[in-house]
């Protein structure tokens, strides 16, 4: 009976001691969390102010201005060039001169048509000279003649291939020459397509700069305004 009364007397003291111990543990735990997570407080201290954000937007816009100015200048020059009729005519004249020179080279009486004949004339002259040349032994002369005759056959075949290629190329050049007016229009269309591409690219750059400028203007307003 005395033991039971003693236990009952000790219970309030035990409860208060346990409560104090729990409170101390919670306090230590909270302190540890604060010690392990300094980022939250630092993040709060380092949060960008409206003035900081405005400064960043202003710097970004200022950096983009020179590039945009350069693009506008280059685009203006590109449009002027692509809409220059004289430039298109000059390109057509240059093409005409190139085609004419090539056609003269590969025509039936042009220099290309004479190349195979010159090579064959040289080989045949060597064969004729070897047949009368006494500087070599009979077997040596026969060997040299056989080599030149083999070369003659191969050169005749190569000359025929060259003549076929020359004739085909000449025909294509003639077709090109006969369609100069149509080709001239195609050249002008190509230039107009380049102008369209320049317009698209400049539009994209201006829209990007507009977005930057819009963010900058938004940063001018005071918070809550």
What do these coordinates show?
This protein has 225 residues and is mainly α. It folds into 2 domains: 1-47; 51-218, no CATH class. It contains 7 helices and no strands. Helix 4 runs antiparallel to helix 6 (138-178). The protein is elongated, with a radius of gyration of 47 Å. Residues 1-10, 20-30 and 32-36 have low confidence and may be disordered.
Low-confidence stretches: 1-10, 20-30, 32-36
Compute the number of helices: 7
Kindly estimate the percentage of residues that lie in beta strands according to DSSP: under 5%
- Tally of DSSP β-strands: 0
- Mean pLDDT across the residues is 80
Shape verdict:
elongated
| Terminal-residue CA separation | 78 Å
What is this structure's SSE topology?
Blueprint: H1 2-36, H2 38-46, H3 50-82, H4 85-106, H5 111-131, H6 138-178, H7 180-218
Helix pairs in contact: 3-7, 4-6, 4-7, 5-6
């Amino acid at each position: 009976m005395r033991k039971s009364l003693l236990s009952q007397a000790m219970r309030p003291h035990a409860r208060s001691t346990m409560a104090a111990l729990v409170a101390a543990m919670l306090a230590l735990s909270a302190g540890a969390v604060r010690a392990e997570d300094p980022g939250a407080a630092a993040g709060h201290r380092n949060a960008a102010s409206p003035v900081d954000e405005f400064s960043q937007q202003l710097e970004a816009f200022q950096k983009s201005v020179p590039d945009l100015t350069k693009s506008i200048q280059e685009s203006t020059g590109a449009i002027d060039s692509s809409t220059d009729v004289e430039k298109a005519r000059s390109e057509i004249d240059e093409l005409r001169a190139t085609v004419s020179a090539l056609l003269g080279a590969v025509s039936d009486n042009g220099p290309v048509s004479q190349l195979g004949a010159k090579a064959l004339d040289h080989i045949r002259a060597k064969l004729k000279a070897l047949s009368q040349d006494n500087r070599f032994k009979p077997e040596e002369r026969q060997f040299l003649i056989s080599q030149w005759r083999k070369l003659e056959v191969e050169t005749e075949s190569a000359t025929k291939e060259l003549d076929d290629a020359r004739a085909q190329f000449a025909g294509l050049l003639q077709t090109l020459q006969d369609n100069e007016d149509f080709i001239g229009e195609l050249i002008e269309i190509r230039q107009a397509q380049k102008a369209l591409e320049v317009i698209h690219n400049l539009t994209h750059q201006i829209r990007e700069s507009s977005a930057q400028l819009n963010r900058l203007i938004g940063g001018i307003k005071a918070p809550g305004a």
